[in-house]
Amino acid sequence: MRTLASFVAFGAAITSFSRLWQGVRSVVEGDGRLYGSLAAIWWMGLFLASMAYLALVIYAADRAAGRAKRTIPIFERLLNRGRGPHGADVAAGSGGAHRHGH
Question: Which residues does 29 contact at the CB level (< 8 Å), separation at least 6?
Fold first, then answer.
């Protein structure tokens, strides 16, 4: 599923960058605006979101393989959701102070 999502994100990045570049060229060449401000914001947001997702997937793969040289705090927070501060799975009941037993 992650591979499919990566391909979709890559396609979205290419398409949105292409549309943004068409808009810039039309303004620079004096043809007027290709589309309105709302469409420009949409294409920019789509481009940035898809690139951020691709960066997260690449970072996660490098981190899992032990190749991440530096941590990226926002990616670490996203990747560690549902886990304790040291990577322990909170949902699985890692024990500790929450254990009920004698």
Answer: none
Tell me the DSSP string of the chain.
-HHHHHHHHHHHHHHHHHHHHHHHHHHHTTS--SS-HHHHHHHHHHHHHHHHHHHHHHHHHHHHTT--SS--HHHHHHHTTTB-TTS-BSTT---GGG----
**Residue 96 in this model has a pLDDT that exceeds 80:** no
pTM over 0.85, yes/no: no
* CA 12 and chain centroid, separation: 12
d(CA 44, CA 37): 11
Tell me whether residue 3 is exposed, middle or buried, using C-beta atoms within 10 angstroms of its C-beta: 0 to 12, 13 to 18, 19 or more.
exposed
d(CA 79, CA 76): 5
